[in-house]
Write a structure and sequence with these properties.
This protein has three domains: 70 residues, Arc Repressor Mutant, subunit A, CATH 1.10.10.10; 100 residues, ATPase, nucleotide binding domain (Nucleotidyltransferase, domain 5); 78 residues, ATPase, nucleotide binding domain (Nucleotidyltransferase, domain 5). The protein has eight helices and 13 strands. The strands form four sheets. It has a five-stranded mixed sheet with strand order 6-5-4-7-10. A three-stranded antiparallel sheet has the order 1-3-2. Helix 1 packs across helix 3.
Length: 272
């Protein structure tokens, strides 16, 4: 009696395989910006039979725009496709002492809308009102929100941010995510500055950097081996709590170093 050999099953599900191919088409279109279906076939390596339904879906979702026929050496003109960076939008929100600043950016990173709103009432209510209003008709394309907070952020909860009224831990990220229905990332504002400088700024060519930010508060962002380091309690960059006097541990969530050397503290001494 011979054994029946069962052909091995693919470790990649049909849905996952389709998503990989879909992302491949989006990536190729993003790189080329304007291209024909034939060029998309060459760039992705996908057959026309596989590519046709993917392109049809991406046109319906707004990722690809049909721009009519283009030039052709022979035969009928080729239909031209254009990548649409506004098919996916993200919101960036900065919590500040007297206001919140909100920006909407497309998938190229281009800011397409900006607004500052005076900080009154509840912060979560303010964010969940400002973001949809600023996104406007593009709200269905919103894929996520990033919130920069001048305090310690762990697991989406913010604490030690007295300048924005958050001294005790509050799950701001979770609350905004639940109400807006999109993923929310919330982190210390200086950590996000350090990540930005490392990704596309002054620290783009180094693996390790320290960013010191002096404003109404004082904070630091630390990048080691290309990764933002937050410390076991999320407070690795809270240099505002550096002690100046063994007996002084700060008060009302403000550290002794920040209480003496922040912009507002220096200004008060100058005025005095």
């Amino acid at each position: 009696m011979t054994d029946v050999v069962t052909p091995p099953t693919s470790p990649v599900s049909r849905e996952r395989s389709k998503e990989i191919k879909r992302r491949s088409v989006i990536s190729a279109a993003r790189q080329a910006r304007v291209l024909s279906r034939a060029e998309l076939t060459e760039l992705t390596g996908l057959s026309p039979a596989t590519l046709t339904p993917l392109v049809r879906d991406l046109i319906a979702e707004g990722y690809l725009l049909e721009r009519g026929p283009g030039a052709s050496r022979a035969g009928r003109p080729r239909a031209i496709l254009e990548f649409n960076p506004r098919a996916e939008l993200v919101a960036a929100v900065a919590l500040e002492p007297t206001r919140i600043s909100c920006e909407i950016a497309d998938s190229d990173g281009a800011v397409i809308a900006h607004r500052s709103v005076r900080r009154t009432g509840d912060i979560v209510d303010l964010i969940c009102t400002a973001v949809p209003e600023l996104a406007g008709p593009g709200l269905p394309a919103l894929r996520g929100v990033a919130i920069a907070a001048p305090g310690v952020s762990t697991g989406g909860a913010v604490r030690l941010a007295p300048s924005v009224g958050l001294v005790e831990a509050r799950p701001v990220g979770e609350s905004v995510q639940r109400r807006l229905g999109v993923p929310v990332v919330i982190d210390n504002d200086v950590n996000l500055m350090a990540a930005g400088e490392h990704a596309a700024g002054a620290g783009a060519d180094v693996a390790d950097l320290l960013l010191l930010h002096v404003a109404d508060g004082i904070g630091a962002g630390l990048v080691l081996d290309g990764q933002v380091r937050r410390g076991s309690g999320g407070a690795a960059g809270e240099v505002g709590f550096l002690p100046l006097d063994p007996a002084d541990r700060g008060h009302d969530g403000v550290g002794p170093f920040e209480a003496r050397w922040s912009e507002s503290a220096v200004a008060e001494r100058v005025v005095a």
